């Protein structure tokens, strides 16, 4: 699947709006988890795979290529890390993470069936 780019049709939208391209990219399996794990600090390929338990090497390789091409992740001496763009994206997601914690507290506990 090609990298979703602003100005081009993407999954679920033909408008080409940048937000739709970003949502397509972030909606791909493991993309958000990878970015969230890199927010915790740089990681080699194997470390990142271990942090994302259950992630296959082929999917990780594909996602890392997409996230690097989208300028959200860089590869340096210490391994993969968030780029300046990736860090800014995560900083903008932190209020959503805080909201999710509050939301989770308000939900009734899961029933034991």
TrEMBL record:
Keywords: DNA-binding, Transcription, Transcription regulation. The keyword Phosphoprotein does not apply. Transmembrane segments: none annotated. InterPro entries: HTH_HxlR, WH-like_DNA-bd_sf, WH_DNA-bd_sf. The keyword Iron-sulfur does not apply. This is Transcriptional regulator. Residues 17-108 form the HTH hxlR-type domain.
């Amino acid at each position: 699947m090609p990298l979703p780019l602003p100005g081009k049709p993407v999954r679920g939208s033909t408008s080409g709006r940048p937000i739709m391209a970003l949502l397509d990219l972030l909606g791909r399996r493991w993309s958000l988890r990878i970015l969230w794990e890199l927010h915790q600090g740089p990681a080699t390929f194997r470390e990142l795979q271990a942090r994302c338990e259950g992630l296959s090497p082929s999917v990780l390789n594909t996602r890392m290529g997409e996230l690097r091409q989208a300028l959200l992740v860089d590869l340096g001496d210490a391994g993969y890390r968030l780029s300046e763009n990736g860090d800014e994206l995560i900083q903008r997601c932190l209020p959503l993470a805080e909201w999710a914690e509050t939301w989770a507290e308000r939900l009734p506990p899961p029933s034991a069936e």
